[in-house]
Design goal:
The protein is α/β, with parallel strands linked by helices and 181 residues long. The protein is built from five helices and seven strands, in the order H-E-H-E-H-E-H-E-H-E-E-E.
């Protein structure tokens, strides 16, 4: 697994083999970042189900000013911290070890506003609709923010007041991007 673009292009990201994770394939990541490229510069990002930190690291490599990396798995947190140290991006990273609800409550309590949210939970969780509802209810997104979801099947509901910016299938995976109307 490598960083595919930006300042860190070509660098190896550790953690492709963490039990319970499913890293985003390079071709999916490349296509995804081509779609959202104009939203990344100086953005505040949340990689909610971080795994290895793959998506958040890619965002920082492409100019995000800050990324919150969150995962409940302590093995993932260890790898994320190693990757952040190896890439010398600690000044642009906040690592949280919480479940998704605790993380969103923490961000809400701290007054954080997000430009990009990556949602790539373990497929068996099927919590994306609930997560998106919480993000919207707590008004965590800036007006021009986007929510990027990776799912294994189509069970997402377009959030009220939002629209589907992009929906693309990659084999058994689907990437759906929402933005406010």
């Amino acid at each position: 697994m490598r960083v595919i673009s930006g300042d860190l292009k070509g660098r190896v990201i550790k953690g492709f083999n963490i039990i319970g994770t499913r890293p985003t394939m390079d071709r999916v990541k490349e296509s995804l970042f081509a779609i959202i490229q104009n939203k990344i510069l100086n953005s505040t990002v949340l990689d909610l189900f971080s795994g290895s930190g793959n998506l958040g690291i890619e965002a920082i490599s492409n100019g995000a000013k800050l990324c919150y990396f969150n995962d409940i798995n302590k093995d993932c947190i260890k790898i994320i911290k190693e990757n952040i140290t190896n890439f010398n991006i600690g000044n642009k990273a906040v690592v949280l070890n919480k479940d998704w609800l605790q993380c969103l409550n923490y961000l809400n309590a701290s007054g954080t506003k997000l430009d990009i949210v990556f949602l790539d939970p373990p497929y068996k969780m099927e919590c994306l609709n609930e997560v998106i509802e919480k993000i919207i209810k707590d008004n965590l997104m800036n007006d021009d923010g986007i929510i990027v979801c990776e799912v294994s099947h189509d069970y997402l509901q377009v959030p009220l007041g939002w629209t589907e910016l992009k929906n693309k299938k990659y084999g058994d995976k689907e990437v759906v991007i929402y933005k406010k109307k």
